[in-house]
Amino acid sequence: MAMSTGIKPPTIALIAGEDSGDQLGADLIAALRRHYPQARFVGIGGRRMQEHGFESWYDIRELSLFGFAEVISHLPRLLKLRRELVARLLAEKPAIVVGIDAPDFNLGVERRLKQAGLRTVHYVSPSIWAWREKRADKIGQSVHRVLCLFPMEPSIYARHGIDARFVGHPLADRFPLVSDRVPARRALQLPLDAPVLALLPGSRHSELERMGATFMDAARRVTAAMPGLRVVIPAANSRALATLKAQLARGPRDDSAPILIDGHAHEAMLAADVVLLASGTATLEAMLAKRPMVVGYRVSPLSYRIARLFNMLKTDVYALPNILARACGMGKDTMLVPELMQDDFTADKLAHATLQLFHDSERRGAIVAAFEQMHEALRGHLPGHAGDHAAASIVELIER
């Protein structure tokens, strides 16, 4: 790819709010460096972004919150951080500011910067197909362009006159279309002939505190019903590792106890026959690994009551594989993945749904076939990688 020329390398600001955003940011920096080898990257990011020469002004964990109640309790600190960040970016005057996901925080920052004359991009569209499509108008007030990971999103923005581009989903580049569990099991030192359950109860501390014990209880029930089952739990980060270790210490320690590992979530999914996990980006990863799954989630009671009171949910499905199945034309009532949310989020129901998948090979096969079709759709038949397309769209705005 030809490199852009200029008198001074640009400063590019990125604002990532959690582990998944850190990975997106790292891929984006790598792709942008092919255009601007000497560019300076600043803002908020994690370890992966910093490994690519990113200068992080704040700890990424400052933004790793979820749910109304959680955000409200930290609101004074978040507002102070946002004021400081906006002031610093206005003083820095980067060539462009890219907010990566974390819409509750980033869109407010982007709006102020856009009003001050800076170019702004939001990378990863908020779920406007599920939560209040009219939010698209406010997003348009905050950014010059939205970079979308899902193929159905740009047409929604087009109805509101907003520039949105489908760039493909970066995770679709990280998994082969047809997956093989043998190398993953060998890498994790798991037996090749035993049933394996991958358990991913969330990456945020608040999620693990709220749901971890229920997921652990469900896994113990599945293990009791399936002699020889191995359960592997990949911790998303060091704080999650410590929390999960403490939760496991409260349970029995024997040969059937779950195996806790530091990272390696993709390998754990690929090694598994079935995945039991919290709703979120991990469900998309399990889909791309072509692994049947059971999805559970529970937000704080206050967050749930607020969402119900204001009728904020516009979908009857929550797991990304179910949403994508319907978007890919598999039927408006398609429910590929069992979802156990809020009051249904109990250890008994999670264990029952998981055991049903283990005992129904025909159903697992049908799910895998559907996941392969959806994987192709997320690649978008675009040449190259998603990070390259996102970078090209950003470069276009910088050099306009």
From TrEMBL:
The gene is lpxB. Belongs to the LpxB family. It comes from Dyella humi. The keyword Protein transport does not apply. Keywords: Glycosyltransferase, Lipid A biosynthesis, Lipid biosynthesis, Lipid metabolism, Transferase. It catalyses: a lipid X + a UDP-2-N,3-O-bis[(3R)-3-hydroxyacyl]-alpha-D-glucosamine = a lipid A disaccharide + UDP + H(+). Condensation of UDP-2,3-diacylglucosamine and 2,3-diacylglucosamine-1-phosphate to form lipid A disaccharide, a precursor of lipid A, a phosphorylated glycolipid that anchors the lipopolysaccharide to the outer membrane of the cell. The keyword Glycosyltransferase applies. It is an enzyme of class 2 (transferase). InterPro entries: Glyco_trans_19. One of its GO terms (molecular function) is lipid-A-disaccharide synthase activity. It holds the Pfam family LpxB. Pathway: Bacterial outer membrane biogenesis; LPS lipid A biosynthesis. Its EC number is 2.4.1.182. This is Lipid-A-disaccharide synthase.
